[in-house]
Give the backbone structure.
Amino acid sequence: MRTTSRPSYEILNGGQWAAAEATLTRVRAFTLLLALCALFVTGCGGGSDEDAAAPVPTTTETTTPESAARPKAPPIVGTTLDGEEVSLAELRGRQVFVNVWSSW
């Protein structure tokens, strides 16, 4: 009766269990070493807080150029979500934000 913990396929592969086990141990050790190196490299990439980018100053002021300096918008006509047609010409003189987007 066999009492070893080796798998039953040892007989099928010519009894080379020791070589396969040594190779598996080397692969596991290399994988562990590679993972530790990756953790070390990612953890050591930082610097001091002085090296960090300065925060972008925020402001609530808006600047609008004089109306004579702004080019006129081209004639744009679109449909609202309610199905009504709207054109930029109807909104002349008011500040308008046009959000142009697409769905792929």
Residues 11-43 form one domain.
